[in-house]
Amino acid sequence: PMMGKIAAGRLIEAVADESEIDLGIMFKGKGRYVLKISGESMIGKGIMPGDYVVIESTRQARHGDMIVALVDGFDATLKTMLVNQDGTITLMPANDEFEPVTIDAKRLSIQGVVVGQLRTYP
Which of 47, 63, 115, 118 has its CA 20 to 30 A from that of 26? Predict the structure, then answer.
């Protein structure tokens, strides 16, 4: 059950709202799967080590999408994809401690796009 809203900023009035939310809908859809995050390159987007991301399997993505990228058929990573005017692709981390990687588009195979995220606490 979803019981309402809670403030993460200014205080708000507590108003009950006993509706339901179906988390299963995040996982419904052709070719959706889950990956567990290892590493800290996307913490600026709120994706922390140990989180789970829901991926929609696709070979196409748009500029600015967060993708599962396979580089040279071997190295996989989760990054934001930026399409450059010269036809190259930049895989952009969301953590200043990591460098962007710019590659020829032919070296990149898009495996999927992030459509959801889950986090649990001990």
Answer: 63
Residues forming a β-bridge with 75: 71
Instruction: Give the per-residue pLDDT at 2.
Output: 61
| pLDDT > 80? residue 85 | yes
Q: Measure the CA–CA gap between 87 and 103, rounded to whole angstroms.
A: 9
Give the predicted TM-score (pTM) of the model: 0.82
CA distance 73 to 17: 48
**Catalytically active residues, by annotation:** 41, 79
Looking at residue 59, its pLDDT comes to: 96
For 14, 33, 105, the CA distances from 20, given in Å and listed in that order, are 18, 23, 43
Q: How far is CA 57 from the centre of its chain?
A: 13
CA distance 51 to 2: 21
Residues of 65-95 as b/e, b for ≥16 C-beta within 10 angstroms? Answer: bbbbbbbeeeeebbbbbeeeeeeebebbbbe
